[in-house]
Structures are given as structure tokens and as C-alpha cells.
Design goal:
By secondary structure, this protein is α/β, with parallel strands linked by helices. It has helices spanning 42-53, 55-60, 73-83, 96-100, 142-151; strands spanning 12-14, 20-22, 30-35, 63-69, 88-91, 104-109, 112-117, 120-124, 130-135.
Length: 153
């Protein structure tokens, strides 16, 4: 489990469009790393759109936004095209990065338990340290709260 003050685990994952994204290559920019359950579902779409609507404000504050789910790159590409998203999406099909960040968790719904991604966001400063963590994120107002935290770095 990653906590505030920890060094963010580095990773290289396939990303939308083609190629790979390596977390450490984004330094010295701050990184908003958000984990979400699944492309093109109601909550995940609202979250991606909220981050997209503020992407210029995040850039002006020196941050880039990266979304992580287990969806394959082709599904990310369709999700981005359908909603004109402006955030990078990486594919963690093996759940390795989700497990490193403690977002691959047991969930329950209607009395059944299953493994899934917990909606969470990690703000990583320009030196690679985790500055703030939001777990069990509720989408309304979340992008604004993260932007305020970025401005406070």
C-alpha cells in the first residue's frame, strides 16, 4: 500500500495510441495518477471527462494526468475517441501496478465478492514522491480537489 511521503513505484505500461508510458520519464512534472475500474462505464466516464475539462489548468500548474485501468489499449483508444478525452490512459492488464499501489482490492456487490480496482488518485510531485492520496474516490468535485492540491505543491 502506497502512502503519502512514499516514493511512487515506477512503471512502464502500454498506453493509448501506441507505445509505452514510463512514470519516471514524466519528471520533473507532477503526475496525477488515477486508477479507475473500467472504460466507458458511468462513473469512470464522468471522472475522465472531469479531468479532461481541466487538463489545461493542470498543465498550467505543471502536472500531467494519467489514468490506469486493466482495460486493453484498444479499448482505451475507443474510450478516448468516443468522449474526446485529453488524458493519457495506460493499460495494466496484469494488475501489477494496481497491486503495487494497493488499488487491486476485494469488492462486494449484492452479497458477492470479487477482485476489482478501487477508484483512487495519487498526486506525485516532480521528484517522484507521493504528495497526496485519495482512496474510494467519489467523482463529483474530485478533479477540482486534485487541481487545488496540485496548485499547492
Amino acid at each position: 500500500m502506497i502512502n503519502e511521503g512514499d516514493t511512487a513505484p515506477d512503471f512502464t505500461l502500454p498506453r493509448d495510441g501506441a507505445g509505452d508510458l514510463t512514470l519516471s520519464s514524466l519528471q520533473p512534472k507532477a503526475v496525477v495518477l488515477y486508477f479507475y475500474p473500467k472504460d466507458d462505464t458511468p462513473g469512470c466516464t464522468k471522472e475522465a471527462i472531469a479531468f479532461t475539462e481541466s487538463v489545461d489548468d493542470f498543465a498550467a500548474a505543471g502536472a500531467v494526468i494519467v489514468g490506469v485501468s486493466k482495460d486493453p489499449v484498444k479499448k482505451h483508444d475507443k474510450f478516448i475517441a468516443k468522449h474526446d478525452l485529453k488524458v493519457a490512459l495506460v493499460s495494466d492488464e496484469e494488475s501489477d501496478v494496481c497491486e503495487q499501489y494497493g488499488t487491486w482490492v476485494e469488492k462486494s456487490m449484492y452479497g458477492k465478492t470479487y477482485m476489482g480496482i478501487e477508484r483512487a488518485t495519487f498526486l506525485i510531485d516532480g521528484s517522484g514522491k507521493v504528495s497526496k492520496v485519495w482512496r474510494k474516490v467519489k467523482v463529483p468535485g474530485h478533479a477540482d480537489a486534485v487541481l487545488e492540491a496540485v496548485k499547492g505543491l
